[in-house]
Amino acid sequence: MSDDHVYMTLAEGHEDDTRWAYGTGFEDPLHGVDTAVPDGVDAGELAALCVTLADDALVSAQRLAEWTTRAPELEEEVALANIGLDLLGQARMLYSRAGQVDGTGRDEDAYAYFRDPGDFRNVRLAELPGGDFAFSIVRLLVLSSWRLAHFERLTAHRDPVLAAIAAKGVKELAYHRQYAAEWAVRLGDGTEESHRRMRKAQEQVAPYLGELFTAYDVRDEVVAVLRQVTEAAGLPMPVYRPLPGSGRIGEHTEHLAPLLAELQGVARAHPEATW
Amino acid sequence: MVTTLLDARRARRVAEQVPDPELPMLTLADLGVLREVSLAPDGTVVASLTPTYSGCPAMAEMRAGVAARLRAAGYARVEIRTVLDPPWTSAWITADGRRKLAEHGIAPPGAAPSHATGPVPLVLSPTRRSVPCPRCGSADTEETSRFGATSCKALWRCLACREPFEYVKEI
């Protein structure tokens, strides 16, 4: 009986024990899920949607993980890492679904580690450096509010796998948004300094809002949530001045390439390793 | 046919005993992640598991654990399936599971929040919840961190007996 020991259970089936340090031969997160695409669902569109939502989540998770050992308090570090872990889990399932339906049969690692910056479809807001804690909070508020509203609609998607991934994600995104909203109120309605930093963070985030609202019809709902939070926080709604370009068509800032270099470096240096 | 039914039940009992990797006082059945165990006509045992959270890092280990126990119990062919729908809820933690959590100093979850469909409302006013201390039973407790060592737990402390404790969140 080997399953009482974590290492023995995970290492089971891997003859080359020396590679264990690189990973545990992670199984497909959709292992054993019915992979059929329902009639009337365009497989190419479905795959593109899954990749877009996965890219947002993967890049956000990487930025959230950067707060580990750097957050203002241990509790916030744990919170941000936990939120990042949820998003990473969503990304893994979405990449796996994309690979099942786009005809390439790629696994999650192929999407995460072996695509170049121009192939990523995340919004630019997700890739901007973490900067101030206030900036990370405003960004998390915007991205989690948008993702929650969008996932809530996707629970009715005709693809049952995407609908199920979304239904699971809704529960998680609800407490991500709650966390960000409570911090936004605390900082906006806090000291002069925290209020000033929140105003600055809002100005930094505002130019990137338009990218989120082009493809999916959740704008009014998200704006209503942002208005509710800014009013409670004593903050103004930021003036929206859109920037040209969009991460949704592969146009990114100079910040995505270094982020991916760090994320992908080990996997690309050891492409034969068991993950 | 009778043999098959008995065998399916036996396979289920075997799979039910696999401990959760992160809350080892609970079995996968106590936690509500073991959804179904059935026997295919060719004798393959099909066990269905559902993840608690999207990012649950223990899923691979749970799958490996269930497969290993079933093989050790004499089932040569084992298939593990992942079920995503309906999503796991803390309401699926059994009464036995709740008792075991409390016995190990972890407060079990309260009633899971219910949300039908449509936009999820954001509530900004402070909500008072009372989580009884799993050690002394006092209701005089407070949250110290909504996020803890695993996705499913928050950190609380008891103001009566002064002990910190973990609390499995409702989801």
Automatic annotation (TrEMBL), chain A:
MF-aspect GO terms: phenylacetyl-CoA 1,2-epoxidase activity
Keyword annotations of the record: Oxidoreductase
Biological-process GO terms, alphabetical: phenylacetate catabolic process
Top enzyme category: oxidoreductase
EC number: 1.14.13.149
A cellular-component GO term for this protein: cytosol
Protein name: Phenylacetate-CoA oxygenase subunit PaaC
Organism of origin: Streptomyces tuirus
Phylogenetic placement of the source organism: Bacteria, Bacillati, Actinomycetota, Actinomycetes, Kitasatosporales
UniProtKB/TrEMBL annotation, chain B:
Organism, as annotated: Streptomyces tuirus
Name of the molecule in the record: Phenylacetate-CoA oxygenase subunit PaaJ
Matching PANTHER family: 1,2-PHENYLACETYL-COA EPOXIDASE, SUBUNIT D-RELATED (PTHR42831:SF3), FE-S PROTEIN MATURATION AUXILIARY FACTOR YITW (PTHR42831)
MIP18 family-like domain boundaries: 16-73
Pfam families reported for this sequence: FeS_assembly_P (PF01883), Zn_ribbon_PaaD (PF23451)
Listed transmembrane segments: none
Gene3D superfamilies hit by this protein: Fe-S cluster assembly (FSCA)
Top-rank taxon, per record: Bacteria
InterPro entries referenced in this protein's UniProt entry, alphabetically: Fe-S_Maturation_MIP18, FSCA_dom_sf, MIP18-like, PaaD-like, Zn_ribbon_PaaD
Stretches assigned to the PaaD zinc beta ribbon domain: 125-169
